[in-house]
Amino acid sequence: MQILKGADVSAKIKAQVQQALSGSGREAQPPKLAIVRVGEKPDDLSYERGAMKKMEAFGLRAQSYAYPADISDDDFKAAFRAVNEDPDVAGILVLLPLPKQIRQADIAAMIDPAKDLDGISPVNMAKVFAGDESGFAPCTAEAVIEVLKANEIPIAGKRVTIVGRSLVVGKPLAMLMLKENATVTVCHTKTADLKAACSQAEILVAAAGRARMLDGSYVGDGAIVIDVGINADADGKLCGDVDLESVQEKAAMATPVPGGVGTVTTAVLAKHLMRAAGRMPIAKSVEE
Ligand code: NDP
User: Fold this and answer.
1) pLDDT digits 0-9 by tens, 130-139
2) Is residue 276, in this structure, part of any structural domain at all?
3) 95/147 same-domain check
4) For residues 164 and 209, is the Cβ–Cβ distance under 8 A?
5) Long-range contact list for 19-25, CB < 8 A, 24+ apart?
6) Does residue 56 sit in the same domain as residue 105?
7) Distance from the CA of 55 to the center of ligand 1, in angstroms?
8) pLDDT average, residue stretch 62-84
9) I need a surface site. Which of 69, 100, 158, 263 has the fewest CB within 10 A?
10) What is the mean pLDDT of the chain?
11) Residue 213 CA: which ligand 1 atom is closest?
12) Does residue 50 form part of some domain?
C-alpha cells in the first residue's frame, strides 16, 4: 500500500502560491488572513497555530483575532463586523463552532462571501451546490480533491463512498465529487449496511470522527482510502477514522493521520487567501 503524504501535496500548492506571489507585483504586500477565535479550546488553538505557521511558511500574512469565551452576541458581532470590513483583511477563517450565546447562522450570513475562505456563507454553500467555481468550498472538502489530483488519481466515473454528511466535510465533498463526475454514495449513522457501502468504493473517504472505526473489512481490494478524521484514541494519541495497519493488505493507497489531509487543508486555505486577494485564478488545482 502506498502512503499518500499530505506534505507532498502541500509543497505543490506552496510552489503555486509562491509563484503567484512573485508574479503579482513584488511591491504589493502579501494578502492577510484573519483567524477569528472565541475562547481557548485546545482544538481551536492547535488549528490556529497550524494555520499561522502555514501562512508564514507560504509567505502570507496572518493575524489572530481572539475574543473571550463569554463575549456577548452583540459585542462579538460588532467586533466581527470590523474585521469583515477591514480592507487590509483579504480573507477570514472563523473557528467553529462558536459558543452557544453567539448565533452562528448570523455570522455565516454576515461574512463577506468574497472573504469567506472556508465557505461558511450561504452564498458559497449555494455555489458549491451549483458547481459554480467562483465561490469558496470548505477547505477540508477541497483538500480531499487536491490529494487525489496531485497524486494523479482519476475521479471521473469512479465509485466514491463518503462516510459522514456534515456541512463542513461530507456534504460539500459529495458536491465536489459529483462535479468531478464520480458516482457518489454518502453514509451516516443511519446507513443500514455501512460495510457494504464502503467496500464497494473505489475511493473511500472517511469523515466520521470515530477513532479507527474503518478497518480492513470495510475496504475493497485496490481501493484508495482518504482519511479526513482527526481523533484522539483511548491513549490520547492522534489518529484518523481508518485503522491504517488493518487496511494495508486491501487498499492500494491511503492517507495517514497525522500527515495527511490536515496538512493539505491549511495549504488550500492559503490558496483561497490568494484567490480572495485576486492574486490567483479561480479553482486552480495542483495538477495544472
Ligand atoms: P461531524 O461530527 O459534524 O460529522 C460526522 C459525520 O459522520 C456525521 O454525518 C455522522 O452521521 C457520521 N458518522 C459518525 N459516526 C458514524 C458511524 N459510526 N457510522 C456512520 N457514520 C457516522 O464531524 P465533521 O464532519 O466536522 O468532522 C469529521 C472528522 O473530520 C472529525 O474527526 C474531524 O476532527 C475531522 N476534520 C478534519 C479536518 C481536516 O482538516 N483534516 C477538518 C474538519 C474536520 P450523522 O449525520 O448521522 O450523525
Assistant:
1) 999 999 999 9
2) no
3) no
4) yes
5) 20/274, 20/279, 20/280, 21/59, 21/60, 21/274, 21/279, 24/279
6) yes
7) 26
8) 98
9) 100
10) 95
11) 18
12) yes
